[in-house]
Design brief:
Blueprint (H helix, E strand, L loop, with lengths): L2 H15 L6 E5 L9 E5 L13 E7 L16 E6 L10 E6 L8 E10 L13 E9 L17 E6 L8 E5 L10 E5 L2 E4 L37 H6 L16 E9 L2 E6 L2 E7 L12 E8 L10 H4 L1 E11 L6 H21 L1
Antiparallel strand pairs: 1-16, 2-5, 3-4, 4-16, 5-15, 6-12, 6-16, 7-8, 7-15, 8-9, 10-11, 12-13, 13-14
Helix pairs in contact: 1-4
């Protein structure tokens, strides 16, 4: 293996494995009220974060109020960012997203955060309107909503997400832009002889999913997702809301804290959940793609045009983000990484000498 290839591979390995060797570019634990430092965006004109219509967001939400325990990296505190979509009475295919103000992330980075996806029960099927998507990604301009139902260039970003209770035929999704091109949208080659319009998510069977380029690669029933066990609602939540009975299906993201990680290295962005790679997008899949911005974002959207009819929907159907940390990843040729590479080659050389 050539030295440069080894070093580049080592960069990927270190970034994805969780070893930290870059500067912290941004962090937020939501323990103080940071509402003024985040921008809410919605696919519904005139929607705001607190108008009790469409999408909603609460940057200083005490999630213990609905029976959710402290996140793994919170040290016992229970404040996080709550995101809601298509709340009771809205009834449209819609979504919202949140970006921190004034954040510009350039170059390679690792973004880590705790994610909880709550759904209204009973489980495993879920209650009325329980199937929604929670997303995280990169490439926003900080003000435009990131939502797959729109086709403006302002939605040209990369993002990943999944359902909480597995109620979709496509529970895991990876998006490379949502359009923004005049005329016919360019196509992305996803397999030999197979293309898709850029206005679509990477489809079931796409090789971007670690589950494999096979039918059912995006459904929670695929055995690949068995690393995610089923979960019951926390005891305090069941006490508050007796409908939260049963357990989510194996392979679903809901009703538990999961550690999400998005790693950008060059043109590739990788999504991990609890240390397992779920999907990887290379932006060169579409040569016409350019990011709309350099901010991070999180969001929630409904996959259907009907909102929940559950009276407890506002209390039980949402995405929750806590403990966001974005760290830079140095260029593969920086001194520290080169030294690591040299150390690796030195070890190999010593072993070869002993064998000789």
């Amino acid at each position: 293996m050539k030295f440069t290839s080894f070093v580049a591979s080592l960069a990927v390995l270190l970034a994805i494995s969780g070893l930290s060797f870059g500067a912290v570019l941004y962090s937020e634990n939501f323990d103080a009220d940071q509402t003024a430092n985040w921008t809410f965006a919605s696919s519904i004109n005139g929607d705001t974060a607190t108008n009790n219509s469409g999408g909603e967001a609460n940057v200083f939400f005490d999630y213990s109020s609905v029976g959710i325990p402290s996140a793994p990296n919170s040290g016992g505190t229970t404040r996080g960012m709550k995101m809601e979509s298509n709340i009771l009475g809205t009834g449209v295919f819609s979504g919202m997203s949140m970006s921190p103000n004034g954040v510009s992330v350039t170059g390679d980075f690792v973004m880590k955060f705790d994610m909880w996806q709550n759904a209204n029960g009973p489980f495993p099927a879920g209650g009325s309107g329980s199937t929604q998507m929670t997303i995280g990604g990169y490439g926003s301009n900080g003000t435009a909503v990131q939502f797959p139902g729109l086709t403006s260039a302002q939605q040209n970003s990369v993002y990943f997400g999944g359902t909480g209770e597995g109620g979709s035929g496509v529970d895991y999704r990876a998006y490379l832009g949502t359009g923004g091109f005049t005329g016919t949208a360019p196509t992305i080659t996803v397999a030999p002889g197979s293309t898709q319009p850029d206005t679509q998510k990477n489809p079931d069977g796409s090789p971007v999913y670690a589950a494999g380029a096979v039918a059912g690669s995006t459904n929670n029933s695929n055995t690949f997702y068995a690393f995610l066990p089923g979960h019951s609602a926390p005891g305090p939540q069941t006490t508050l809301f007796p409908q939260q009975t049963g357990s989510t299906a194996v392979g679903t993201l809901g009703m538990a804290w999961n550690s999400w990680k998005i790693v950008k290295l060059g043109t590739r962005l990788t999504w991990q959940v609890n240390g397992t790679t779920v999907a990887t997008i290379d932006t060169t899949m579409n040569p016409a793609f350019t990011f709309n911005g350099d901010n991070i974002f999180f969001g929630q959207f409904d996959i259907n045009a009907t909102s929940t009819a559950d009276a407890n929907g506002r209390n039980l159907l949402f995405g929750l983000v806590d403990n966001v940390v974005v760290e830079s990843v140095p260029e593969p040729a920086t001194g520290a990484l080169v030294m690591l590479g040299l150390a690796g080659f030195g070890s190999v050389a010593r072993r070869r000498c002993r064998v000789a």
